[in-house]
Design a protein that fits this description.
alpha+beta; 3-stranded parallel β-sheet; 18 strands; globular
Length: 368
């Protein structure tokens, strides 16, 4: 994610297009410094992309006054300590989610950043994808009327690694390393639901580890200790109910890897990562249940495609990077901050506890 989406498709793409226009005649041109543990791999990566600077010494880079922003795409378990160092060095910080493995740590980081007076942000890429953008337009236009429910289906089969290499890193399936479906995806569902339909006020979840034995990047078997599936009911402010099935042990029979169905009094919509189809109340057919014969209607054909709007085809990560860089340079409005990141961790933590205790739990709202 850090290499492909953030470096190549975001920062380097922005550099290649000439930078980020600031609207006042100036242009901000990102100049990345690569930081990691393996100097040989960093040197090769830097050479491949024409990047002048790289380092294995994070503190030395943070001490450089020319470096203004620290971005973190490490494994979750390593993120809080690095963010604390960057905040202490006075750098603006931007990071992948989840911000931390524990809500207390995520909230502490947000408060440290606020006290330090730096700009801070967390990646919330799903908001910038075409499908959710189209849903947002329908919400803003009042298409749904009163939203009744949201149903989310997400996931795919992650190969176990014995016959073919797995398409996700092995740490994702070890709880001791910060892995798990709820930790990874509940922060996404938190900001999607909040931004589109309203904050999550309670959660009832059941987490499961369906595949308990996997093989790592070196072909060695290991015990999968993290949840690879999470089944949850979220109650939203205002009364709407959201149901989400999230699994890395499901074979896909959907148009896209993520699908959201929204049902309201005046209309419904089904959105994926890119497409969105809608059906208004005025065009809703009258289905009839007939168990004695095959369905006579083509239900999918009764929905209309929501057209693209300008910007819908942009890379979601790059679009958010542009907003964050403008925020750093100009102080433009920005609410995808570390407090937003802490909300996602709060939901994941409440989901874990709900699953352990077998009951519905309230979701805390982090206070600055």
């Amino acid at each position: 994610m850090g290499h492909r989406q953030h470096l190549v498709r975001s920062l380097l793409a922005l550099r290649e297009q000439g930078g980020v226009p600031l609207g006042d005649g100036r242009t901000l041109r990102p100049d990345p410094v690569l930081v990691g543990r393996d100097g040989g791999r960093l040197a090769a990566l830097a050479a491949r992309h024409g990047i002048e600077r790289w380092s294995t010494d994070l503190d030395a880079v943070l001490a450089d006054p020319d470096v203004e922003v620290y971005f973190d795409a490490q494994a979750t378990s390593a993120r809080p300590a690095a963010l604390r160092r960057a905040i202490a060095a006075g750098k603006h910080v931007y990071c992948e989610k989840p911000v931390a493995g524990r809500y207390a740590d995520a909230l502490e980081l947000a408060r440290l950043a606020r006290t330090a007076g730096i700009r801070h942000g967390v990646v919330q890429d799903k908001l910038f994808l075409p499908g959710p953008r189209k849903l947002k337009r329908l919400v803003d236009e009042g298409f749904f009327g009163r939203v009744l429910s949201v149903r989310g289906e997400f996931g795919y089969w992650v190969l176990e690694g014995d016959r073919e290499p797995a398409q996700r890193p092995s740490w994702n399936y070890r709880a001791q390393d910060g892995g798990g479906m709820a930790a990874d995806m509940f922060p996404h569902w938190e900001y999607l639901l909040r931004e589109l339909f309203g904050p999550v006020r309670s959660v009832q979840a059941r987490l499961a580890t369906h595949i308990d034995r996997r093989w790592d990047e070196r072909g060695r078997p290991y015990e999968a200790t993290a949840d690879d599936a999470a089944y949850a009911i979220f109650e939203l402010e205002g009364g709407a109910v959201a149901q989400f099935n999230s699994s890395w042990a499901v074979r896909v029979h959907r148009d896209e890897l993520l699908e959201l169905q929204v049902d309201g009094t005046d209309g419904s919509a089904v959105a994926g990562l890119r497409h969105c189809r809608a059906q208004h109340r005025s065009a809703t057919p009258r289905p009839v249940w007939d168990p004695d014969g095959p369905a006579a209607e083509d239900f999918r054909a009764q929905w209309r495609e929501v057209p693209d709007a300008p910007g819908d085809g942009d890379n979601a990560f790059r679009a958010q990077w542009e907003l964050f860089l403008r925020h750093v340079a100009l102080g433009t409005p920005w609410h995808h901050d570390l407090f937003a990141g802490a909300r996602g961790v709060a939901l994941a933590e409440a989901g874990h506890r709900s699953s352990r205790e077998g009951r519905r739990l309230p979701v805390p709202e982090p206070a600055p």
